[in-house]
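Write out the bound-state structure for protoporphyrin IX containing FE.
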Amino acid sequence: MSEAAVHENPTGSVLFPRLGSVLALAPLGVWTTWHLWQNLVASRSDEAWQHTYFSGSAAGSVVTSLVVFAPLVIHTLWGLRRLKMASVNKYSYFGNLKYIVQRVSAVGLLGFLAAHITLARIKPALNGTHETFEDLAAHMRHHPPTTMVYVLGVLGTAYHLANGVYTSFFINGLAASPQAARRMQVISLVFFAFLVVVGLGAIAQLYNAGAAFSPPVD
Ligand code: HEM
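---
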């Protein structure tokens, strides 16, 4: 077993680690990449936002939620179990650093997702609507805690997903040789940079648009 595989699967069991990591790649990782891209397109203007979030059917919205939330819950339970088993080892400094940041970003993401899903999805849904362009843009511009939480949420997501792709290739035996590992490291870095640019790009567009709106009252 490789260094990373020992790190990621200290019990040696096969089924649970595979289920947790495969679900994290698809549909969760694929959806998250799509979600960040969709936000970059939607946050260009109020019209683009309306088209993205207000023009779909209610059934489509429920299906999306199921495709996202079921794997998210399974992956979170799987991740919490692995957090409890966490231990650094005597191998490379870089490997241990990535391992620690993966776990710190997981804890940060739990907090970010709880706040983000409650405010951007559940709260508007209880009023029978979706999050509006004006509300999010005004918060992004005039409410620094919102801006900070979104920036950290995007950075944490980009790292957790890009490094997760790298480690899941080990768990599933797809990057066992040193050459394959180096190739995956480069792919993971490029993917990280892509997610950061797309995610921060959406935040920057919302921040700029927020100048046209009054500060939110809540
Ligand atoms: C650029 C920053 C982001 C913006 C502007 C944004 C915007 C939104 C909006 C407007 C919704 C509600 C969608 C609807 O009503 O149909 C939503 C839902 C959601 N977002 Fe984000 N988001 C961002 C970043 C993230 C990140 C980094 C993640 C991490 C994975 C994430 C995960 C989710 C999840 C899980 C949902 C609920 C999915 C659903 O029920 O359809 N978001 N987001």
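---
Confidence is low (pLDDT under 50) at residues 1-11.
The CA atoms of residues 75 and 144 lie 30 Å apart.
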